[in-house]
Amino acid sequence: MPDVAVDDGPLTGTRIAVLLESDFYEPEIFYYRHRFAEEGAQVDFLTRLWGNPELTFTGHEYRAPFTVVRGIEDLTDAELREYAALIVPSGMVADRLRYSEDVTRPAPATELLRRAFAEPDLVKGIICHGMWLASAVPQVVRGRKVVCHNNLVGDVRNMGAEYVDQDVVLDGDLLTARTGEHHHVFARRLIDLLIQRRAR
Known about the structure:
The protein has 200 residues and is an alpha/beta fold. It contains six helices and eleven strands. The strands form three sheets. Strands 5-2-1-6-7-11-10 form a seven-stranded mixed β-sheet, with helices on both faces. It has a two-stranded antiparallel sheet with strand order 3-4. Helix 1 runs parallel beside helix 6.
């Protein structure tokens, strides 16, 4: 069932994509679903569908179900550009999405992230362990200021990123946040950023 956004908010007509897989952090995902819609944005949840018309995932904390009907495998560059932001959430989502049955080829979600970084008009939002998805394409964050979960500080430094000890860090078109529990301040910063970009 599609989410309903208000038709007179500051982000009316804006589309935000959120990646999803099992073991997602329910407070974060359900917050995004409703909070961005309050501002008028359409929120689309994307995943690797593996040839299925839809997949239902379960959350980490409460095993809450969440059904996704939009796949990433065939998402074109033109369709990707329709989004104002792409969010890689916290929890195990990134780890599950970076799986590739052929280790000589990047997972579809990793390739999607690489393509997203080639689009400066698309805000990339990565929170907590979401940085795992960038590990196979470290060049996208090399030299960028980021924050991540404390467990990944060594990883992001090995990827060539500059770790900043703040809850939310903005570096151009890249917005990062420390943990899933910071999803509300991450969302607030993203909303403000998208409103500013629309005003240009």
